[in-house]
């Protein structure tokens, strides 16, 4: 029921959907409180619903909800705090909510394993140490995505030994980390398997070898630095365009345009259009 322009729910009707476990209501204008009678719901997608406030309680909540997507809304830290009443919540997506703070009671998310905070407004300011303290209080957190914020590193002022013991993957891509030493404390996260640093200034200049060695030596984990394509730096003469010319008897005929025309043949599955630079 995505993109249906729904702005109200008849609560009495929701009692009849006792077997519903997955519900995609993205791009509507629905209040999460109107859905609590979907008793067996396990996955709920409410992205792009213009949600600002959430009012849940111990008596009014989702007892079986495992995954909740609230991306692209306008949530406050007070609203996020009320999500603690969802007892079995394991995955929470809060991408692009213009958040710059988290509630102090994140420790009450006792079963939360995956937290996606991409595209928010978290930054390395006076609140940064409290931000990391809040994250560290989520005991079962195993996957943390902080991509596309304004963070310069991991702030350790309030962290202690034993924090982030369950954390296996950190996505720190496309922040503004300028020095690998600002992420070096990730080596202390004993379960860490992967640290993604793509798109940070120090990663783009390939200055991450020390971090890579430290993380591997301490945890056995890897540091991922995928190549960032800089299309704007490439000259027109370097451009290669692949066009689909014909499909015949399972063979694809592609034309490559680069000063002179050359033909290549292959046995790939259907390829509608491919363009590389």
CATH C-level class of the largest domain is Alpha Beta
Uncertain runs with pLDDT below 50, 5 residues or more?
A: 231-277
Radius of gyration: 23 Å
Counting helices, strands and paired strands, the structural category is: alpha/beta
Molecular shape: elongated
Strand arrangement in the largest pleated sheet: 1-2-3-4-5-6-7-8-9
CATH topology of the largest domain: Leucine-rich repeat, LRR (right-handed beta-alpha superhelix)
| Overall pLDDT metric | 83
The name of the CATH superfamily of the largest domain reads Ribonuclease Inhibitor
Question: Element order, helices and strands?
Answer: EEEHEEHEEEHHEEEEE
Which percent range fits the helix content? 10-25%
Number of helices: 4
Q: Give the biggest sheet.
A: 9 strands, parallel
Counted up, domains total: 2
Commentary on this structure:
It is found in: Cytoplasm. Keywords: Cytoplasm, Hydrolase, Leucine-rich repeat, Repeat. Pfam families: LRR_8. This protein is of the alpha/beta class. It has 2 domains: 218 residues, Alpha-Beta Horseshoe (Leucine-rich repeat, LRR (right-handed beta-alpha superhelix)), CATH 3.80.10.10; 44 residues, no CATH class. It has 4 helices and 13 strands. Helix 2 links the parallel strand 5 and strand 6. It is elongated and about 60 Å long. The C terminus is likely disordered.
